[in-house]
Design a protein that fits this description.
With 226 residues, the protein is of the alpha/beta class. Helices cover 35% and strands 18% of the residues. An eight-stranded parallel sheet has the order 1-8-7-6-5-4-3-2. The chain is globular. It starts with a strand and ends in a 5-residue tail after the last helix. The mean pLDDT is 97. Bound molecules: D-xylitol-5-phosphate and zinc ion. D-xylitol-5-phosphate binds next to strand 2, strand 8 and helix 7. The site of D-xylitol-5-phosphate has 22 residues, from strand 2, strand 8 and helix 7.
């Protein structure tokens, strides 16, 4: 198991995204998490394909692209072409989730599925063998800086159990309210990829914040239960 830190640029200064990414990478970021929102699936509008394409020119780690959009199927090719390494789609908007995941993989990308806090783990049951990553939302998607929903800890354990039962070692990612306090708890529950926006970019030193988050998260490995 590999602990990975994925800084979310949603909390960065959009006039200086290159600087934000360089700072995160200096601190040892493993991925850069990009929050794409369309004002339909979530009550906010953020960034789209052209920004991902620009980010791709400066980033040295994989781009982890979280699609909070109502009709992701329409944009998979474009985000792939723009340079995404992983495309994460929300189970709530996809009646043909198996088809969508299969298509993302056919593009040569990693296929991730995200679950909102109110979406039950059973939504993954039939596709547990077809995912490369599961994103457990620990806030309602749409905004950075929200409070971690504690129920997410039990949900991470349940998702890990479901993936293990399917023989799938795909990592669990957790997104929303992750900081030095919540990181060890989610890692102890089985999360391997930690997304953090405010805890990294709303600090004076984002590089140090990445290192500190990793140190805190690593403490959670010691108390992990099978
Ligand atoms: C929320 C986004 C998150 C967000 C996390 O809808 O999916 O990635 O940037 O922000 P923090 O870490 O501030 O909760
Ligand atoms: Zn996200």
């Amino acid at each position: 198991m590999t602990l990975r830190i994925a800084p979310s640029i949603l909390a960065a200064d959009f006039t200086a995204l290159g600087d934000a990414i360089r700072a995160a990478e200096r601190g040892g970021a493993d991925l850069i998490h990009v929050d794409v929102m369309d004002g339909h699936f979530v009550p906010n509008i953020t960034i789209g394909v052209p920004v991902v394409r620009s980010l791709k020119r400066v980033v040295t780690v994989p781009l982890d692209v979280h699609l909070m959009i109502a009709d992701p199927d329409r944009f998979l090719d474009a985000f792939a072409e723009a340079g995404a390494a992983t495309l994460i789609v929300h189970a709530e908007v996809l009646p043909h989730l198996h088809r969508t995941l299969t298509y993302i993989r056919s593009l040569g990308l990693r296929a991730g599925v995200a679950l909102n806090p109110s979406t039950p783990v059973v939504a993954l049951e039939e596709i547990a063998g077809n995912v490369d990553q599961v994103l457990v939302m620990s806030v309602n998607p749409g905004f950075g800086g929200q409070t971690f929903i504690r129920r997410s800890i039990a949900k991470i354990r349940a998702v890990r159990g479901l993936l293990d039962a399917a023989g799938n070692a795909a990592p669990i990612e957790v997104d929303g309210g992750i900081d030095r306090d919540t990181a060890p708890e989610v890692v102890a529950a089985g999360a391997e990829i930690l997304v953090a926006g405010s805890a990294i970019f709303r600090t004076a030193d984002p590089s140090a914040a990445v290192r500190e988050l990793r140190a805190a998260a690593t403490a959670g490995l010691g108390v992990r239960r099978p």
